[in-house]
C-alpha cells in the first residue's frame, strides 16, 4: 500500500518534470530566436554609432534597459538582469566586431576588386 503510493507519486513527479522541461525547451527556443534577432539589430546600431562595438559601450543605456526589464521581470530583478544582459550585450558586440573585422580583412591577392565593401554609406 505504502509502496504503491510511493511509486505512483514518483511517476507523477517524473511526468511533471518532463512536462515542465518541455515548457522550458519551448521558451528556450523562443529566447534563442529573440537573442538572434536582438544581436542583428544591435550590430546595426554598432555600424551607425560614431564609436561602436566595445569601444562605444554605453553603460547608461545598459542600466536604463535593465531597469525597464526589471519592471517586467520582478522575480529576477535588476541585479540578476544586469548579469544576464551584460552577457547578452557582450555576445552581441563580440559577434558584430568579428563580422566587422571580417569585412575589413583584405582578400588575399586582391587590393580592391574582390574585397567586400559593404553597403553604400556603411561604416566599416
Ligand atoms: O544602444 C546602443 O548604443 C548600443 O550600442 C546597443 C547596445 C545593446 O546591445 O543594447 C550595445 C552596447 C551598448 O553598451 C548599449 C546597448
Automatic annotation (TrEMBL):
GO molecular function term, any single one: chorismate mutase activity
UniProt superkingdom: Bacteria
Biological processes, Gene Ontology terms: chorismate metabolic process
Domain Chorismate mutase residue range list: 11-100
Region (Disordered): 97-124
Protein name per the record: Chorismate mutase
Provenance organism: Nocardiopsis alba
Amino acid at each position: 500500500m505504502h509502496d504503491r503510493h510511493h511509486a505512483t507519486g514518483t511517476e507523477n513527479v517524473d511526468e511533471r518534470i518532463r512536462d515542465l522541461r518541455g515548457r522550458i525547451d519551448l521558451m528556450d527556443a523562443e529566447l534563442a530566436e529573440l537573442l538572434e534577432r536582438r544581436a542583428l539589430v544591435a550590430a546595426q546600431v554598432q555600424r551607425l554609432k560614431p564609436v561602436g562595438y566595445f569601444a562605444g559601450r554605453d553603460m547608461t543605456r545598459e542600466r536604463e534597459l535593465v531597469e525597464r526589464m526589471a519592471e517586467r521581470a520582478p522575480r529576477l530583478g535588476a541585479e540578476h538582469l544586469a548579469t544576464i544582459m551584460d552577457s547578452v550585450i557582450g555576445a552581441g558586440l563580440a559577434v558584430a566586431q568579428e563580422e566587422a573585422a571580417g569585412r575589413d580583412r583584405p582578400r588575399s591577392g586582391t587590393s580592391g576588386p574582390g574585397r567586400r565593401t559593404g553597403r553604400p554609406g556603411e561604416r566599416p
